[in-house]
Amino acid sequence: MKRDEQVFQTTAEPLSRPRIAAPEPGLTPETVIARATALKPLLRAQQDEADARGHYSQALHDEFTKAGLYRLLQPRMFGGYEFDYATYFKVIIEIASGHPATGWCLGLAASHGPLVAAHWSEEAQSELFGDGHFAAPHRAVPGGRCEPVEGGYILDGVWPYCSGIPHSTHLVAATLIPGQDGPPRLLNFAVPAGQYTVLDDWGGDRTLGMRASGSNSVRVEKLFVPQHMTADAHHQYRLQDPDAGTHGTRLHGNPMYLGLTMAPYHAALVSPVIGAARAALDEFQDTLRTQNTQVPPFVKRLESPDFQRPFGAALAMTDAAEGIVMQAMHQHMALCRHWAEQKIAPSGEEMLRLWTMQQQAGKLACEAIEMLFRSSGSTAARSGSRMLRYFGDAQMYRGHMSSQYQNFASMVGRARLGLPSGFLDV
User: Fold this and answer.
1) Can you give the pLDDT at residue 88?
2) pTM
3) Does residue 300 belong to any structural domain of this protein?
4) E-strand spans in 120-217?
5) Pairwise CA distance, residues 413 & 358, whole Å
6) For residues 249-281, b (16+ Cβ closer than 10 Å) or e, as one string?
7) How far, in Å, CA of 364 to CA of 95, rounded?
């Protein structure tokens, strides 16, 4: 096997036969990546209307469904393809290079199958995955109010920034259960579409960028959620029982479903920004071929070192960013396999280092976009410019809590020094 082909290999065979057959049992990673790439012209043609709407169109949703993009990380037992994370995020980069905000919206709707497969019971998984089509954001920051009652909980409140919710089948979100003899406990819950209200608070001029990311707020009103549709949220950050693993490792036989989310969750944020950098490179290259320099000698910008230099530097930075994400996903899976073989759980330090490693990828991708933006001239700053769109998209990532590399550097430094990291209890 060639080294670069290793990105596209699945990780294990399931323990039991599928209960729900995937639409295309013979689908390969190479095919699904090619399908994502082929959608680029359509994605770019719909950028303006998607940004105004706040999410991608029903027509694109149908294309994504037909291409199998929602099922890539889902277990085979429940109608998924069970591809690895590197394949999945390569697909999201390709989608995002057509429209970064659509990549964000799709990526955060289609990436949470492993969370459910890892931490929800077999009964709940059968209910949640249903006929095999599952899509859900995960609002990991706790919100709302949670009242324990017999057989479950009453949930009430508003959860903002539920990226990917417009085309989702479910909402997955976190809340806090009041502690009896200690601090509140983090709880994840899942509810199906029809039991929550998506608020009209995203899209158009409401934000600088990522306008089509579908990051709407969601309201849940005094809803009873049964116990089996919830899961302890602490399990996604630290393996509670290294010997037993998780529901997912026992049910599906794949260490990918160990359910530790720090590395893949940040990949879901960085991949759309890498796609934005790829899109910005395409846009900049078009200006090199069509516009002249503004000082003598008057030649196509393509021939000027002053424009060749930022183009080449941004290309190298974007390649490096993508390489970091792919390597982080390989390292994440190596840690999961090491658990499967040795029953040694990945440490908090290891998980945080994969997170901060990818923050550097996001930083590189943003810097590449910013270099191309300022090298494009004042026309790039005009309303309606694609380069301006990609610049705004990058700034939305820059401001995200998860991208604050200086803050996280302190956490990972403390963990490396044997001190409490300060991030939850990892």
Assistant:
1) 98
2) 0.95
3) yes
4) 138-139, 145-149, 152-159, 170-177, 185-192, 197-198
5) 16
6) bebbbbbbbbbbbbbbbbbbbbbbbbbbbbbbb
7) 19
